[in-house]
Amino acid sequence: MPLLTLVVMAAALAWPSAASAQIYAWRDAGGTLVLSDRRLDPGATTYSVPDTPAFRTTRPAAPDATREAFEPLVQAHATQQGIRPDLVRAVIQVESGFNARATSPKGAMGLMQLMPATARELGVRNPYDAAENIRGGTTYLRQLLDRYEGNEELALAAYNAGSDAVDRHGGRVPPYQETRAYVRKVGAAADLERPAGSPALAKRVIYKRIEIVDGRPVAHYTTERPATGSYEIVQR
User: Fold this and answer.
1) For residues 23 and 45, what is the distance between their CA atoms, to the nearest angstrom?
2) Average pLDDT of 145-160?
3) In this structure, are residues 91 and 159 in contact, taking their beta carbons and an 8 Å threshold?
4) Range 64-190 has CATH code 1.20.120.1220
5) pTM over 0.70
6) Poorest-pLDDT segment among 135-149, 171-185, 217-231
7) Torsion angle in degrees (nearest 10) through CA of 29, 31, 36, 41
8) CB neighbours of 1 closer than 8 A, spacing ≥ 6?
9) Domain map of the chain by residue range?
């Protein structure tokens, strides 16, 4: 398999794509090629990419079985906090790639990447315990959603950059490249819900469905996935 194909496959496995994403690559001490969407410290934790021994990434590629193992916790805590499971699942994907042992260069821990101070405030004793981490992360996300009146974009921006940063910028997503990219990635994975008038950082999915009326095909467009019949995604 060509080298370029392997690189693309490794990157695709490691994190969700974003239209403006920048991929950084470097060689570690052992000569292995490391891929990341962030310019990280040299000591950043990296993970092997399955079936590509010459490559490592800063995001683990979680197999379906791993995701499924955490699904009951996602459903339970999302329901308890009144949050869409899709949103919680997307945060976990972007934050840790479903790696319960993940630690960021800044010290964020576990599935939902809780900072030590935040974990203490939320009563999370072991951030690497999946149940505790998701409980704490969803509680924190609920607090942010309440603070910003259900605006998921602002809640996610605060989750990434801190609520002080959002407030300093007039209750808008801060103009930080990392934060805006984070909101786009989570939004793409969770079909982010935005109140009317909110800046369009994450494009919504548009579904096209064809209905036969009087023998003629008539196209219908909606942002809600059709419950029955075939459809086509025409914009993301």
Assistant:
1) 16
2) 95
3) yes
4) no
5) no
6) 217-231
7) 20
8) none
9) 3-57, 64-190, 206-235
DSSP 114: B
Q: What is the largest CA-CA distance in the chain?
A: 68
Q: Single out the residue of 106, 81, 78, 105 nearest to residue 92, CA to CA.
A: 78
Is the separation of the CB atoms in 141 and 95 below 8 Å?
Answer: no
**DSSP class per residue in 176-196:** -HHHHHHHHHHHHHHT----T
How many other CB atoms are there within 10 angstroms of residue 66's CB atom? 14
In the block, residue with structure tokens 């974003």: 18
What is the DSSP-derived secondary structure letter of residue 90? H
pLDDT digits (tens, 9 = 90+) for 10-33: 444 444 444 444 566 656 555 555
Q: Which residue has the higher pLDDT, 230 or 73?
A: 73
Q: Which two tokens stand for residue 9?
A: 């496959």
Task: Report the distance separating Cα 20 and Cα 42, nearest Å.
Answer: 23
Active site (catalytic) residues? 95
